[in-house]
Amino acid sequence: MKIVVCIKQVPDTAEVKINPQTNTLMRDGVPSIINPYDLHAIEAAVAIKEVMDATVTVLTMGPPQAEVALRESIAMGADEAVLLSDRAFAGSDTWATAYTLSGALKKLGFDLIFCGKQAIDGDTAQVGPAMAEFLDIPHVAYVSKINSISDTVVEVRRMMDDGYDVVETSVPVLFTVVRELNQPRFASLKGKMRAKNAQIRKLTHADIELDEKDLGLSGSPTQVKNIFAPEMKKERVVFEGKPEEQVTELHNVLKSVKCI
Ligand SMILES: Cc1cc2nc3c(=O)[nH]c(=O)nc-3n(C[C@H](O)[C@H](O)[C@H](O)COP(=O)(O)OP(=O)(O)OC[C@H]3O[C@@H](n4cnc5c(N)ncnc54)[C@H](O)[C@@H]3O)c2cc1C
Q1: Which residue CA neighbors atom 13 of ligand 1 most closely?
Q2: Count of CA atoms in the C-beta half-sphere (13 A) of 84
Q3: Which pLDDT tens digit goes with each residue over 17-30?
Q4: Can you tell me the distance from the alpha carbon of 64 to that of 24, in angstroms, rounded to the nearest whole number?
Q5: Quick one: CA torsion of 201, 66, 111, 106, rounded to 10 degrees?
Q6: Which end of the chain is more exposed for a tag (fewer CB within 10 A), N or C?
Q7: Is the dihedral of CA 164, 186, 154, 170 positive or negative?
């Protein structure tokens, strides 16, 4: 079974900086980590490899420095790592990111694809399901448990607001995973040594045979016009009177600010 885990390198900070001229994320000078949800995706893949005949490939689309995240994945137990990097990918929105990654996935081949639920910087949770659409395969989002797995069928639990669904799916399939799925392992010393010397396979747009016009900024149907933090307004209002009068007053206020 060939398992591919898609990981994203994200800034190690809750405070994402935005370039005010281009409205894009400023990654330079900000320490980076593997997107925390993707650690659970790596763990799931490596755990499957321990119980059945499988290989784990980790794939990221990003700048050359994303190689660090790939080496960390190898240290956790992945067999090989692929860096999808090209100037032609710059400015990709979620559509172009998913399209480009799915081009690489077609080239690499796959049975199972694991993604994180969402990236903690972009936060859209769109890339996993969008890739499944481009690849024309089923996907299950918010996977919190793998009940059973064979070369052809997988049964998983999908976390829902009010409980969980049990879903059986054929292979190939794409899963996006949540924290509840597992506890990511620490890299072993042996793993770290293997990661240090590992060859990272590099792919450009030419390798995945996609037209440059469909990539990066020119392949992105959405453009960021403006990004800003919502203005914080701290206005304290105390309602007086009987509870029912206070409720009426609150109702009127909420109506006046179009909350209800
Ligand atoms: C309208 C719009 C315009 C944008 N424009 C730009 C821009 O001009 N420049 C720019 O730098 N960014 C831009 N971005 C951000 C960029 O598109 C996203 O970082 C990227 O598409 C991933 O989306 P996300 O962070 O929301 O990931 P999510 O969809 O939340 O990620 C879910 C999962 O998908 C996988 N995944 C996500 N990204 C990658 C990746 N790169 N490699 C491998 N796996 C991955 C991971 O498993 C991750 O856990 C834009 C985003 C939007 C919505």
Answers
A1: 93
A2: 33
A3: 677 777 676 767 77
A4: 18
A5: -60
A6: C
A7: positive
**Cβ–Cβ < 8 Å for 57, 135:** no
Closest-CA residue to 219 (of 85, 83, 54, 94): 94
Q: Which residues line ligand 1 (CB under 6 A)?
A: 6-8, 24-25, 35, 37-38, 41, 59-62, 91-94, 97, 101, 115-116, 118-119, 121-128, 222, 224
Q: Is the pLDDT of residue 6 over 80?
A: yes
Is the overall model pTM greater than 0.70, yes or no? yes
Q: How far apart are CA 209 and CA 224, in angstroms?
A: 27
Which domains does the chain possess?
2-219 (3.40.50.620)
Does the pLDDT of residue 229 top 80, yes or no?
no
Nearest CA to ligand 1 atom 25: 122
Number of helices (H) and strands (E) in the chain: give both, helices first.
6, 11
What separation, in Å, do the N-terminal and C-terminal C-alpha atoms of the chain show? Answer: 52
Q: Which of 46-60, 109-123, 193-207, 228-242 has the lowest mean pLDDT?
A: 228-242
Q: Residue 230: its pLDDT value, please?
A: 72
Q: Say how many Å lie between the CA of residue 223 and the centre of ligand 1.
A: 13
The interaxial angle of helices 67-76 and 189-197, nearest 10 deg, is 140
What pLDDT was estimated at residue 15? 58
Banded model confidence at residue 14, pLDDT cuts 50, 70, 90: low
